[in-house]
Specification:
This protein has 182 residues and is of the alpha/beta class. Helix content is 40%, strand content 20%.
Length: 182
């Protein structure tokens, strides 16, 4: 009722909030019904196995209630949490979703108990999923860092595109919006 007049929602979060935005996109869309919900996951990368260790996944299942927060109709998400990108991009094809990432996110790498090189390898494993969906794009900066929408964010660019411009293209449904990588 608070947002009864909304014409579009943008759900965004950084770091743990990025995971939260991703994990709650489906639930938020259900709550808003016909109102379109777009999602920005800033540095909450859900990597595939072996970059997302099964033991750590089990810890998240318990600590975050991950099983209850994954979409109930995504059977493959329990075995491979990175499957959520493909599943939700397909389910919400009329919406847009973005992953913002540094190539060498030492915070998430440390959390996942992998090296930053392995983190980059894990990101590369997501590329085919992002390439398969026109509504799922990534913005990747070839640097070490964590959370792009932080102080100085309007100075960042990838592939020659400033982050501010890229996000504006996303929310304004610009057909030129596409993955932008360094």
């Amino acid at each position: 009722p608070t947002f009864a007049g909304a014409s579009k929602i943008v759900l965004a979060g950084g770091s743990a909030g990025g995971y939260g935005a991703l994990l709650n996109w489906d639930r938020t869309q259900a709550a808003f019904g016909a109102i379109r919900v777009d999602m920005i996951d800033d540095s909450g990368q859900m990597l595939p196995h072996p970059y997302f260790d099964a033991a750590l996944q089990e810890t998240m299942m318990t600590a975050w209630g991950l099983e209850a927060n994954l979409p109930a109709d995504c059977a493959s998400c329990l075995d491979d949490p990175s499957a959520i990108y493909d599943f939700l991009a397909g389910k919400h094809a009329g919406s847009r979703a973005a992953l913002l990432t540094y190539y060498y996110d030492d915070v998430i790498a440390s959390y996942l108990q992998i090296t930053v090189g392995e983190f980059l390898d894990g990101l590369s494993q997501l590329a085919p999923v992002f390439n398969a969906h026109a509504n799922l794009e990534a913005f990747g900066v070839d640097a070490t860092g964590h959370v792009l929408m932080a102080p100085g964010w309007n100075q960042l660019s990838a592939g020659g595109t400033p982050l501010r411009q890229w996000l504006t293209q996303m929310v304004e449904d610009d057909p030129a919006w596409t993955t932008s990588l360094d």
